[in-house]
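Pipeline run #58 for the internal structure catalog. This entry was flagged by the ingest filter as a single-chain record with no existing model, so it goes straight to prediction. Upstream metadata was stripped on purpose; only the residue string is passed forward. Reviewer on rotation: M.T. Logging verbosity set to normal.
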Amino acid sequence: MARPMFFLHRATLGLTLLLQIVVTNSLIVPAAHSVSSPPDGREGQGAVTPGSGDRVQQPEQPSPTGNSPFTDWNAFTPPQRGIPGRREGGGTRGTNCPSPITALIPESTMGRTASGQPAFFLYIPGTLDQKILEFEITDETDKTLYKTTFPLSIDRPGIVGIQWSPNSKFITLEENKNYRWYLTIKCSNGDSSNDILVSGWINPIALSADQKRQLEQTQDPLEKLKVYAQEGLWYETMATLAALRLEKSTDSTIKNQWNELLKSIGFDPNQTITQNQKNKAQAILEAPILKIQTNQ
């Protein structure tokens, strides 16, 4: 299968570098201007066309100059003929699930990873009482490769991370292939019409020997973040910074870095159009990280 072709979408109009790790180092360039979500292929558009051989389009990484590597998260896009994922999922009025639930992924809904078991993060604007979540991974033709269910409970609005234990039966993600993931909250027993669905794309890549060595030589998560962000590894960047935010909830520096990461994928109240979008973006910025749940 052909390897991906890369292209560069450079941010313009004086975009500022984000996610400052040390005083002279910054990692992310914001490129998002809206919190709206594209329609999902499972609701009215159908599955990805079988046989599609297109691979994720991604910007080539800029040659680092000084100490300012950067990544435009929203420049990584699904396969050319693939259907964009769905960042926001809403339910029918009167269900037992809060909505809209939002997947914290780039606006394009594509994210790169070098991990075999990436973690996924959701903003949930209410409580959940032992609701069943269904997680599914498919290939580009929408063929199911992995599916599992697990319970989730939260007692207040906030952000939840979902990851898998090393001994789980999570599938092996092959490098330079595109995968689509779906996460469905089952809101009513026996009535799937009330389900809340979000989805996105994963593009696994291999790190170079030098990059692996950089990561192995440091235990400092802030140093690891430099490598993750420079290489456009969304899932590692998100998971690492979320863990720091959960561990150091009162650390203003970590909070600022976290907010800048969220703003860079469209959750910036100052870059939205409608009042509803502003309110939602602000709510996500202010939301606490409640937990990072590990499933078997």
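catalog note: The chain has six helices and ten strands.
catalog note: The domain at 41-46+59-295 is CATH 2.60.40.10 (Immunoglobulin-like).
status: ready for reviewer M.T.
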